[in-house]
Amino acid sequence: MKDLNKLIIANWKMNPQTKKDAEIVFSKIASFLKNKKRVDVVICPPFPFLFIKDKIKNKILHLGSQDVFFEKEGSYTGEVSASMLKNFGTEFVIVGHSERRDLGETNQNINKKILSSLQAKINPIFCVGEKKRDVNGFYLSFIKEQLHFGLEGVAKAQMKNVVIAYEPVWAIGSNALREATPVEFMEMKIFIKKVVADLYDMKTANDIRIIYGGSVNPLNALSFLKEGEADGLLVGRDSLNVKKFSQIINLSVAL
Ligand code: 13P
Questions:
Q1: What are the angstrom distances between the C-alpha of 11 and each of 73, 99, 176, 183, 235?
Q2: Residue 90 resides in a domain
Q3: In degrees to the nearest 10, what's the CA dihedral of 51, 218, 255, 223?
Q4: How many Cβ atoms are within 10 Å of 232's Cβ, its own excluded?
Q5: Residue range(s) defining the domain that contains residue 118
Q6: Which of 36, 94, 146, 159 has its Cα between 20 and 30 A from that of 200?
Q7: Burial 9-35, CB ≥16 within 10 A → b, else e
Q8: Separation of 225 CA from ligand 1 center, angstroms?
Q9: Is pLDDT at 85 greater than 90 in this prediction?
């Protein structure tokens, strides 16, 4: 893979509850990132807080959203288009997160969202992950199916803008069954690369960033980046804790 910076992504989910708190967390992270190099940090706040980026200009701090709608414009009450997000300075969008899939997001809609993001020149962070693992390896077919559906119609030239996030559902959130291991991630990274190489070619597979998400914290972040060879991390809970998130960023810078 090309020598790309590690991608450290904050998924704030439906937090924090106030504009003031969002501004505080964001500006603390922004000032921590001053003079930092060799890392790309993406903050994905809820839609009402996307304005926070306007105040800070920093080359390695990027704005992401947690969802997007696939239609361009029109009568779609409650939805937000990729071009609106782009207009707000959004460079990344999380698509297909398991928490959205649980709310009814389908593989077909995820595919349309990836295509509309790419068209608007926003980089999709395409999440895949199984609910549980089985000894017969059916979870691998499940991941393959998610990848095939999600990438349908994505041109080879567009693939360099796609980030694939492996987030095993069993390792996410405070009710996680357990943490994943760096080896489990590494195996999945190889599997995802193989699926992408079969769909496109090896070069395309080598050039995309495959990142890990699920209970990432300052104690396990380095092992996913180093032993697991993750190209980045998608952080939930600890991304709202400035101290912990800064530690995770520091670990990736030091690599
Ligand atoms: P946690 O880091 O809180 O487990 O959340 C992971 C996640 O869902 C990131 O998208």
A1: 26, 12, 17, 24, 6
A2: yes
A3: -130
A4: 26
A5: 6-254
A6: 94
A7: bbbbbebbeeeeebeebbeebbebbee
A8: 16
A9: yes
Instruction: Give a yes or no: residue 86 inside a domain.
Output: yes
Side-chain-side CA neighbours of residue 216 (13 Å): 35
Q: What angle do CA 131, 229, 246 make, to 5 degrees?
A: 85
Is residue 10 within 6 Å of ligand 1 at its C-beta?
A: no
Q: Is residue 1 part of a domain?
A: no
> Is 232 touching ligand 1 by the criterion CB < 6 Å?
no
Number of domains the chain contains:
1
The structure's pTM equals: 0.97
Q: How far is CA 178 from CA 9, 23, 139, 174, 181, in A?
A: 21, 32, 17, 10, 9
CATH code, 134: 3.20.20.70
118-159 pLDDT, tens digit per residue, is: 999 999 999 999 999 999 999 999 999 999 999 999 999 999
**Top-confidence residue, 254 or 69:** 69
- Please tell me if the CB atom of residue 8 comes closer than 6 angstroms to any atom of ligand 1: no
Nearest residue by C-alpha to atom 7 in ligand 1: 236
Query: How far apart, in Å, are the Cα atoms of 162 and each of 29, 68, 75, 102, 157?
Result: 25, 15, 28, 22, 10
